[in-house]
Amino acid sequence: MRDTFTQMLLFGLSILALAGLLGALDAFYFGPRRLPPCVQEQLPPGHICPETMFSSQKDPEDPTRYKIVWVDARSESDYELNHLMFPDNRMFPIRPGYAMQQLVDAAIERLIAAHEKGECIVVFCTESCNSSDQVAQELRNSGLIKAPIYVLEGGWAALRKAGLARE
């Protein structure tokens, strides 16, 4: 009888140790890679949660598409490495710097037309950059674009998670 009790105790301790190991692995390896939950009401004005964007910007005629014009504010090297592939002039690289005005000029007609098509403009970057805020503010300050302009919370990582980014 004591032998069975000892075996059950050792088995229980083994399970407990395995659970602790898995918890530590989750906390230190997977946890930092997980996006924090996004709460729309807690975001600054002009920012949008991926869930809010995806639910509010679905194209009623084609539920697999969104009524969004994308602006990629990541660095040129990040853009060249991997970017979104959308048809119909739906994605434009615009980043702060000496060539920003040229990039805006190349996209301005389509960005202006977004309002007429019932689309919004979503600017994104990587999690660690603030270029998306700068680009969004510049587009708002132009006074030419009437469509709503949002900064995507979670940026590139959120797009990868949603399956929109091809690496």
What do these coordinates show?
The chain has helices spanning 2-30, 50-56, 76-81, 100-116, 131-142, 155-161, and strands spanning 47-48, 58-59, 62-66, 68-72, 91-93, 120-124, 149-152. It has 167 residues and is an alpha/beta fold. The protein has 2 domains: 2-33; 40-161, Rhodanese-like domain (Oxidized Rhodanese, domain 1, 3-Layer(aba) Sandwich), CATH 3.40.250.10. The strands form 2 sheets. The chain has a 5-stranded parallel β-sheet, with helices on both faces. The longest helix is centred in the first third of the chain and has 29 residues, at 2-30. The radius of gyration is 22 Å and the shape is elongated.
What is the helix content?
A: 40-55%
CATH secondary-structure class of the largest domain: Alpha Beta
Strand residue percentage: 15-25%
User: CATH homologous superfamily of the largest domain, by name?
Assistant: Rhodanese-like domain
User: What oligomeric state do these chains adopt?
Assistant: single chain
Provide the domain count: 2
Q: What's the rounded overall pLDDT mean?
A: 83
CATH topology of the largest domain: Oxidized Rhodanese, domain 1
Structural class: alpha/beta
Would you identify the regions where 5 or more consecutive residues have pLDDT less than 50? none
Helices and strands, in N-to-C order? HEHEEEHEHEHEH
Number of helices: 6
Number of strands: 7
